[in-house]
Write a structure and sequence with these properties.
The complex is a heterodimer of chains A (about 300) and B (about 350). Chain A is mainly α and about 300 residues long. Chain A contains 12 helices and 1 strand. In chain A, helix 9 packs parallel to helix 10. In chain B, about 45% of the residues lie in helices and about 20% in strands. In chain B, the strands form 2 sheets. In chain B, strands 1, 2, 3, 4, 10, 11, 12, 13 and 14 form a 9-stranded mixed sheet that branches. A 5-stranded mixed sheet of chain B has the order 7-6-8-5-9, sandwiched between helices. With about 350 residues, chain B is an alpha/beta fold. In chain B, helix 5 packs across helix 13. Chain B folds into 2 domains: about 220 residues, Periplasmic binding protein-like II (D-Maltodextrin-Binding Protein, domain 2), CATH 3.40.190; about 90 residues, Periplasmic binding protein-like II (D-Maltodextrin-Binding Protein, domain 2, 3-Layer(aba) Sandwich). Chain B contains 14 helices and 14 strands. Classes of the chains: A mainly alpha (about 300), B alpha/beta (about 350). The interface between A and B is medium-sized, with 31 and 34 residues. Strand 1 of chain A pairs antiparallel with strand 7 of chain B.
């Protein structure tokens, strides 16, 4: 098996050598395509341009038929709605609604994810190193991780109430088991020799756990947390849709009552943007702080 | 080979004649679960809808949508020709969305089907500083707003928590200091919680929360006639002592309630069993006053969207031809014509 793999690899490299020595690469089609810079940029932009164009056309057709159409608002309508939500003070609450919504949603997701990743780190680490802890919690956490969090949503609200705590707990329950198990597996992969060595050099078990092993799994923790954010948003919005008095998901499900797509669409983009910024900054942080980790992955 | 060809020809002829037979136009009508709309499902079940469709040579396809708001959104988007909804939602969703809609049947009004319940607070004044759970911007919100008005209070005095109607009953039962505004059947189960009190309900504002059948104004007369005819024939069945039991049994089972529970719900729903009563109600001046409350509430809560400068943005037309709001932008019409025809036996 290994031999076949090795053979394939040599064939592959030979082929790519041969291809690169040939005169021309196709620009778009085929395995060997090498889109030049401009074309590559164009190809990247194309799906976005197409989607926007389709949207604008459909929106105009609907507005020509019915100027009051709410289903596909024009960009001007959305701009006005964003302006009103972001800059004008709401008479009832005395707040700028978009800001209030963003702050409460971010607070919930950040508290929930911080708790999940910190606890996931500590428990995962101890599970990986101490067989006693592993015996105690491994099966249980695996079991919990299989429960679909949205299915226990009613139970969470009924037992924990309608305040912030219930929403944060849903995010926590939804992301913690995965982070914990991932850290556990990462710790398991660290060679036993390293632990033996640090113990023979005189480190205590405590020092080995938190001084030698923990720093090695930290970038992996950030990576896993990053990937769990997608799930966290899902749980946050589900929680806000059901019981809430502010938040991005709350607003979307509230204005749905009068079909205010001019608010819903910009909010969806805001959520996407926030998700992107969080993802990007965590990625950059890992790249800067743990360059060895990036290299080891490559 | 010859046999095969003959078979193919025969088959295609059969299909052709079949498709010729189906030239009746099909219209899709949406509804969602609510006491006052369960008769629609019974009308279909008992063949009443089909009978009236046949009479006007159309096919009426009744479809239940699990999510009430989604059913109205689909109607607004043009996926349905008609939809069961309340007067407030008819104004704020299709009408404000520029879809010219006509109310052809006023089925009932809530006469206790919506209410404010607490776990001990005895009056509205005690709600100051409390957290109130409700489906915001729904008829519950309207009811709360009217109750506060009547007591000289303001919404600012409490915190409103938007709570899904799927969870509100269970949360109310388990939270000791809960206050909720909701509708039946959630309401009648929640109020059974030990210590729970109903401090206000829609019987205090009778005739303001209306359950309607709304169709696109441009829908053909045949559809409007067939729907109205079928509805009032169903109402007759509900009044008939012999037929009633079977009908209520069917509707109760269909809505997941027991027979007694459904009867209890019917008591707090003021159904217009007679077309004449429904037509009379639609003609009364009180309806104008109600719609004025409703549009002011909707405008205040931002339900008219950005384009509206005042509550006059959309025109609401009444049977006598008067228009509330913008005469050039009439999008909601109360049309008593078909109810009157049903009352006169002209359908």
């Amino acid at each position: 098996m290994i031999n076949i793999c090795r053979w394939l690899r040599t064939v592959n490299s030979e082929m790519s050598d041969r291809i690169s020595s040939e005169v021309r690469h196709p620009k778009f089609l085929g395995f060997a395509a090498k889109p030049p810079g401009k074309l590559k940029f164009f190809l990247t932009a194309l799906p976005f341009i197409l989607s926007i164009a389709i949207y604008i056309t459909a929106s105009q057709i609907r507005h020509a038929e019915n100027p009051g159409d709410k289903i596909l608002p024009t960009f001007t309508q959305m701009g006005d709605a964003v302006y009103m939500m972001a800059f004008e003070i709401d008479p009832r609450t005395g707040e700028r609604l978009m800001l209030t919504d963003t702050v409460s949603s971010l607070r919930r997701i950040i508290i929930g994810m911080t708790a999940a990743s910190l606890l996931g780190l500590v428990i995962g680490l101890n599970m990986g190193l101490f067989p006693g802890v592993e015996a105690l919690s491994s099966v249980f956490i695996t079991f919990v991780s299989i429960i679909p969090p949205l299915s226990i949503l009613p139970i969470i609200f009924i037992t924990l109430g309608v305040d912030e705590f219930a929403k944060i707990m849903l995010i926590f329950i939804g992301t913690f088991p995965l982070i914990c198990r991932d850290i556990f597996l990462t710790v398991k992969k660290i060679p036993q020799e390293q632990i033996t060595k640090s113990l023979t050099l005189g480190a205590s078990q405590f020092q080995t756990t938190y001084g030698i092993i923990m720093p090695q799994v930290l970038p992996r923790l950030i990576d896993t947390t990053r990937l769990s954010f997608g799930a966290a948003w899902l749980f946050l919005i589900a929680a806000e849709a059901i019981v809430s008095d502010s938040g991005l998901g709350y607003r979307i499900f509230l204005v749905r009552r009068y079909l205010a797509m001019d608010i819903i669409i910009p909010y969806v983009f805001l959520i996407t943007f926030l998700g992107f910024v969080i993802d990007w900054s965590l990625k950059k942080y890992v790249a800067r702080r743990y360059s060895w980790y990036i290299k080891s992955k490559a | 080979m010859k046999k095969l060809i003959i078979a193919v020809i025969l088959l295609s002829m059969a299909f052709f004649s079949l498709s010729c037979g189906q030239q009746k136009k099909e219209y899709r009508i949406a509804w969602s679960h609510y006491t006052g709309w369960e008769p629609w499902e019974y009308a279909e079940h008992a063949g009443i809808l089909k009978k009236w469709g046949d009479k006007y040579n159309i096919t009426i396809k009744l479809e239940r949508i699990n999510d009430y708001i989604e059913s109205i959104n689909l109607f607004t988007a043009g996926k349905f020709q008609g939809c069961a909804m309340t007067n407030m939602d008819a104004l704020t969703i299709p009408a404000v969305g520029g879809v010219d809609s006509s109310v052809i049947i006023v089925g009932d009004y809530s006469n206790g089907n919506d209410g404010i319940i607490t776990r001990g607070e005895k009056s509205l004044k005690d709600l100051n500083g409390k957290k109130v759970m409700l489906v915001q911007l729904s008829v519950s919100h309207y009811l709360l707003s009217r109750a506060l008005d009547m007591n000289g209070m303001q919404e600012k005095e409490m915190t409103l928590i938007n709570t899904s109607d799927a969870e509100i009953g269970a949360i109310f039962k388990t939270q000791k200091d809960a206050v909720a505004v909701t509708w039946n059947p959630i309401l009648m189960n929640a109020v059974k919680t030990p210590g729970a009190l109903m401090i206000f309900n829609s019987s205090r504002i009778p005739g303001e929360i209306l359950d309607l059948m709304v169709v696109h104004s441009k829908a053909p007369d045949e559809l409007k006639k067939a729907l109205t005819g079928a509805w009032f024939e169903t109402m007759q069945a509900l009044e008939d002592k012999e037929k009633m039991k079977a009908a209520v049994e069917y509707m109760a089972a269909n809505s997941g309630a027991t027979y007694d529970e459904f009867i209890a719900q019917l008591k707090t729903t003021a159904m217009f069993y007679k077309a004449a009563d429904a037509a009379k109600f639609t003609k009364e001046d009180k309806l104008k006053k109600t719609m004025d409350y409703v549009r002011k509430f909707s405008f205040d809560k931002g339900l008219f969207g950005k384009a509206a400068a005042s509550a006059d943005y959309v025109g609401i037309e009444f049977p006598d031809g008067t228009v509330l709001g913008d005469k050039k932008n009439v999008k909601l019409r109360f049309d008593d014509k078909y109810m009157q025809m049903a009352a006169d036996g002209k359908l």
